[in-house]
Amino acid sequence: MAGDAAIEASGLRKSYGDVRALDGIDLRAATGTVLGLLGPNGAGKTTAVRILTTLLRPDGGSARVAGFDVEREAAALRRRIGLAGQYAAVDENLTGAENLEMVGRLYHLPRGEPRRRAAELLERFDLADAADRLVRTYSGGMRRRLDLAAALVARPPILFLDEPTAGLDPRSRINLWETIEGRVAAGTTVLLTTQYLDEADRLADRIAVIDRGRMIAEGSSDELKDQVGGERLDVTLEDRTQVDAAAAALEPLASERPAIVLDGALRVPVSRRQGVIAEAVRRLDEAGVGIADVAMHRPTLDDVFLTLTGRAAEQSDGEEGDAEEEG
What is the average pLDDT across 310-320? Predict the structure, then answer.
């Protein structure tokens, strides 16, 4: 039932030597929702996924997935989850179809179902023409798509996707997004790690931002955006010497003091959106201030991430990223 916790973790800790990959994080994903783990390389995302999918034992803390303890009930849990990691884990000496059929048999799907599911997924991931080719002849992107298809063969109730669209072309990314949305609509719970902010914005019901092994923020996309400020009015002036006059004219609209930025621009935080541009233009015109451009701006997840971490999501943490991959 939606609202129940399909994934729940408390105080997860994991170290690689002197590097703390996870430093006591808590996670929760309600059944039938998408939890996005957002963070730069080395933040701890992959380590968290490995623990939750029984591939790695934590140094501390606890976690339950589908009601099963990830350490004490690992065997039972593995039958309830699907996993696609950062690197394609497919058998190069089998064809694409054989790889997917093998996964279906390992999940003990009914007779005939593995072949049917393989054909369906190969078509969905644009691999039908390569179904009978050995995987060692596939490109990197093709292997990635096959690995993602394998995670979906048994329609697992809980799906872990670790940076699933890394290396995919735009068409394949969109196809995968639609596939994820379809599975969630059918009740599947998804834990998604990503560095793509547009991906988290589109897919995730809740987002946990992780940096250097610690949770630094959690909430819906809108809630996180609100943490770095709501709507703002960006005004570029024709004459930058008029910034003080412009700030005074717009101050009645502002939720806090307007800020002056470079190149004759004025940033005005506002508490409402409707009618603000028209009123701003009127006030500036009455004050004799010329406008080169005016626009409303809603914070994006890029803004959130830069505000919270001080760097872009794709930037690597170097040593930490290496340590995480060794695990």
Answer: 51
